[in-house]
Amino acid sequence: MVLELITLVGLPAVVATAEGIRQHGKNDQPAEPHCRMKDFHIDVYCNSQSRKRVQVDQTMVVMSDGKLYLAAKDSKTKTPLPLPRVSSASHPFTSFFLDFEPDQVEPNMFERLNRPPKIRGLVSTISVNPPILNWIFVDRNTFEVKYGSRAEARGHLLGPWDWTDDKVGIMLEN
């Protein structure tokens, strides 16, 4: 009788403590800024005195044939001009940040404990109609910035991507 009474009285305290710990954990995680979910383009500016400046300054990032390129912009429409030596039409880089989870399948309890953490990835549309997303990654073998499906991106450098401190550019792993 006494044991049942102690259990009955102690149970709400245990539940309240567990809930408090769970809520505290939620408060410790920084809220994902809304600006990371807005899509953006990348315009390139170069104020260096390099002889390559003319090729880089006032361009924008576009996607074609699985890779990211710099394309000159039309001065009136601000859209990318066609790329020379690229077989398919280019698509303007239209990206936002999204967490890359290592596996889509819901693991059992023990696998969940050993699962690698989420990585802040970068996705971009590769077409307008229908809107299709692909992951942006750095190829581990060639160090080229590429895009591809989840399966194609797996095993390469996926992030973390983030804004620079001044929120003007993006960076990969600091």
Describe this structure in words.
- The protein has 174 residues and is of the alpha+beta class.
- Strand 7 (132-138) and strand 8 (145-148) form a beta hairpin.
- The chain starts with a helix and ends with a strand.
- It folds into 2 domains: 1-30; 31-172, no CATH class.
- It has helices at residues 2-28, 53-56, 109-114, 150-153, and strands spanning 43-44, 59-64, 67-72, 91-92, 95-100, 119-127, 132-138, 145-148, 161-163, 170-172.
- It is built from 4 helices and 10 strands; from the N terminus they run H-E-H-E-E-E-E-H-E-E-E-H-E-E.
- The strands form 3 sheets. Strands 1, 2, 3 and 4 form a 4-stranded antiparallel sheet that branches.
Walk me through the topology.
Layout: H1 2-28, E1 43-44, H2 53-56, E2 59-64, E3 67-72, E4 91-92, E5 95-100, H3 109-114, E6 119-127, E7 132-138, E8 145-148, H4 150-153, E9 161-163, E10 170-172
Antiparallel strand pairs: 1-2, 2-3, 2-4, 5-6, 6-7, 7-8, 9-10
